[in-house]
Specification:
Largest sheet of chain A: 7 strands, mixed
CATH topology of the largest domain in chain A: Aspartate Aminotransferase, domain 2
Helix content of chain A: 40-55%
Oligomer: homodimer
Structural class of chain A: alpha/beta
Chain lengths: 363, 363
């Protein structure tokens, strides 16, 4: 097994620092070992800081970011529940698909790929549809768009509904403020701005969401992700559910330490500054952003493939000649856009400079 | 994070050799990187050898062993399908619970904890109930019992049903023979006899099972584990589904290499020999097996806590004074039995000798 040293500037996984890889490789211990249980408690506390929440039910699910999405819908949807999903890219569509599989009556509102919703249009849809759940993607990884959501939570609570927010790409790269935004369920992935390998999904549920879960009329239709069982393992009972991915949790613990050592405000500024630097360079090279002005994600830069250039050829040359990975487009943007990641540890002057120089040479 | 060096002799996770931890810590690369896709193809081929199958759909699911269980039921059960489950411990009960959540009409047959089923009783139940699926645990981790299954497959096929086999604890420790036993769906976990950290679940489906999956009337009620989507990523299409747990797959690849270098027959003999050695020692110490004679699992030795001894105290002393982990009992055996693992790399003379000496001192 001959693994090259890439510079990962796609939509994730992102570059993982040596310190986190070292943590990953520490000796495996048991999932009920007192030492491990203490690490789990530490992870909860650090995740609470990163999500900016006091939610007791804050943990890492044993799957990738998509498992986090599945977790919140599996646990919070009962058959027939009306779920309002805002769709402006792949991950909004995926939320609708997942909710549908758990029997939701899905109501969709859509806006063009590359644009964000005006919050008022979401508020209007909430008023019109009376949903039990409102689901929104904070950072749409397929289009590089940031969705403002600070006005949503109050309206959702007024309807006695729950607010689900997809923070897979946003967490630890731009401000995420679960409690102040009155978010009831959020999830992320380790392989984006947390700078960890893929394999875990941090999830947080408000007390209102937990109450909904515990008041379900039917069992959660997913044993592996059933939080009513899993909370007995992450909680004081320490009741065995499934064997936790021990080493991945070491890595997440170390990644969270690095984030809190840097400090969230400094980290957000770094992402913003590296994004500005990258943007200036990309625009000089004729790569225009496909995401709406004022809503660019610093960690996921979606730009048009310059006219007359072939997407796959250029990405292959970056990979083969420079060992740099950038992402291709998904869905509507397939073959038309690149997704350039500046995530966590990878949001560095070194990476920006290298990519711009390589891209200039290849173009 | 101060991780002690344990000797893991519980029901899993088991000791992970340095070579596999080193593989785990190699640089993360992208899930669509050609180098990584080649590793995935290699893993499929090696898993086919270890499962002894030609099944094209052989892969590693992005979750722990329980996710493998969930995968086969989520994909193969449609609402109303009759599923016959043989239960003689925790994991049989779990299969029934999971099948029920996907809408199965579950038929249970049970035998006493610690005993195996007479195969004829399973055949009789198949004849009586006409199931669409028959689900059996090969190695019951809660009781240390091996279930013979060589006569089941033919009867299942005669009914045009599917045969699901739980190989979480058996794979790579005792013979597993998917094709010769006409098993249609099997799953395992990386943290037992594969000697890898927990986090992945090897799964294999026969062409008959795949045909059933592709002929479903309804979508799989689990997006994350939907094999009709995931096969487009593991197959030639390489269509993005979710971000694979890259580093965990490095570790699995290395673990499979180590298994095939040793050779399966040699590995099975080693497990059997170490089990004999352990057994002699345990019986001298007054620890009687709670599993049925002739059906002991070499990798999971379930023995009664000697009369007058307190389970938790002794396990705590082993952990604190000797850094050895053994497992407590589950369910019916809670507080009454220990589960002593000799799994994969950990099935060694060194571990047996150490445990027997420590146990003698503590008792």
């Amino acid at each position: 097994m001959n693994i090259p040293q890439r510079t990962l500037m796609g939509p994730g996984p992102s570059d993982v620092p040596a310190r986190i890889l070292e943590a990953l490789a520490r000796p495996t211990i048991g999932h009920l070992d007192p030492v491990f249980l203490k690490i789990m408690d530490g992870i909860r506390g650090k995740l609470q800081q990163v999500f900016r929440t006091k939610n007791e039910m804050t943990l890492a699910m044993s799957g990738t970011g998509s498992a986090g999405m599945e977790t919140v819908f599996a646990n919070l949807v009962e058959p027939g529940d009306k779920v309002l999903v805002a769709i402006n890219g792949v991950f909004g569509s995926r939320m609708a698909d997942v909710a549908d599989r758990y029997g939701a009556a899905v109501e969709k509102i859509e806006t063009r790929w590359g644009t964000a919703f005006d919050q008022q249009s979401i508020l209007d849809a909430i008023a019109r549809t009376n949903p039990k759940i409102v689901a929104i993607v904070h950072a749409e990884t397929s289009t590089g768009v940031r969705q403002d959501v600070d006005r949503i939570g109050a309206a959702v609570r007024e309807k006695n509904a729950l607010f689900i927010l997809d923070c897979v790409t946003s967490l630890a790269g731009i401000p995420v403020d679960i409690d102040n935004w009155s978010v009831d369920a959020a999830y992320s992935g380790t392989q984006k701005c947390l700078s960890c390998p893929p394999g875990l999904s941090p999830v947080t549920l408000s007390d209102r969401a937990v109450a909904r879960l515990l008041a379900r009329k039917s069992k959660v239709k997913n044993w592996y992700l059933d939080l009513s069982l899993i909370k007995q393992y992450w909680g004081q009972e320490r009741f065995y559910h499934h064997t936790a991915p021990i080493n991945m949790l070491y890595a997440l613990n170390e990644a969270l330490d690095m984030i809190l050592e840097e400090g969230l405000p400094v980290r957000f500024e770094r992402h913003a500054a590296m994004h500005s630097l990258l943007r200036q360079g990309l625009e000089k090279l004729g790569c225009a952003y496909v995401s709406q002005e004022g809503h660019h994600l610093p960690m996921l830069n979606a730009v048009a493939v310059p006219p007359g250039r072939e997407d796959a050829t250029i990405r292959r040359r970056l990979l083969e000649d420079y060992s740099i990975e950038i992402g291709g487009g998904l869905g509507d943007f397939k073959g038309k856009a690149w997704r350039i990641g500046l995530m966590g540890y990878g949001a560095s002057r070194k990476n920006v400079t290298l990519l711009l120089a390589a891209l200039a040479a290849v173009l």
